[in-house]
Design a protein that fits this description.
globular; 6 helices
């Protein structure tokens, strides 16, 4: 499943979404029923996405439990209600056609920073993995609201990830693997930043160096590889 390629809503795609949701918990970037995962797809003539339902433990999910949501009007199709955060999934996928999947987590270190309204500055070159010289923190708004979606969209401008104040993390990618990989990287960077802060505020890499890193990341890795690594 890749952004820009029409993918049908299928049991195979739904299995990938469930696997990704479970992998968030296994990786330690989420707990219990928190967070949510979506993947862009097509259902008949309707463009939309499948998303994890609200309030169901990931280890109990089946393909039929996932909810298809139309991008045009947010109308859901399924036996269960979609994640309460379906709005920002819809709005992000509508505004950013390069994204094929979104992972939302409550990862501990990144959420700790977000509880102070802090994002990740250019303290380490891998911050550029999110697409820019920093990773912003969106202002707080109640979960599941349009206000939260609007804040998230603004924080994601020219970025693939952001923090949500007093809440968690959003990571986006061309596909589910890329989104999950980025969510894990954001949490790793947040842990390193918190440890660095114990010695004082770390020095920032200058803008011209981050620009060089971003340029190198654009051509990094093997031909089919999408996310840069260390």
């Amino acid at each position: 499943m890749t952004a820009g390629v029409q993918v049908d809503d299928s049991r195979a795609l739904r299995a990938q979404v469930i696997h990704t949701a479970s992998a968030m918990n296994s990786a330690g970037i989420n707990a219990n029923k928190a967070g949510n995962v979506s993947a862009r797809c097509q259902r008949g003539a309707h463009a939309g996405f499948v998303i994890t339902p609200t309030g169901v433990p990931y280890d109990r999910l089946t393909a039929d439990d996932l909810v298809f949501v139309r991008i045009a009007d947010g109308a859901p199709t399924g036996a269960l209600a979609p994640s309460s955060e379906w709005r920002f999934h819809r709005d992000i996928l509508q505004a950013r056609p390069e994204f094929g999947a979104i992972v939302h987590t409550h990862s501990p270190a990144a959420t700790a920073l977000a509880c102070h309204g802090r994002g990740l500055p250019a303290f380490h070159y891998m911050v550029a993995a999110a697409g820019g010289p920093d990773i912003r923190c969106a202002p707080y708004a109640t979960f599941g609201t349009q206000a939260l979606s609007d804040h998230a969209l603004a924080a994601l401008a020219d970025r693939r990830a952001c923090l949500l104040a007093h809440h968690g993390v959003i990571a986006c990618g061309a596909d589910l693997d890329a989104a999950l990989t980025l969510a894990i990287e954001v949490e790793h960077l947040a842990r390193v930043y918190l440890q660095a802060l114990a010695l004082g505020e770390p020095r920032r890499l200058p803008d011209d160096e981050m620009a060089r890193v971003l340029e190198k990341f654009a051509h990094y890795g093997q031909p089919q590889r999408r996310a840069p690594g260390g």
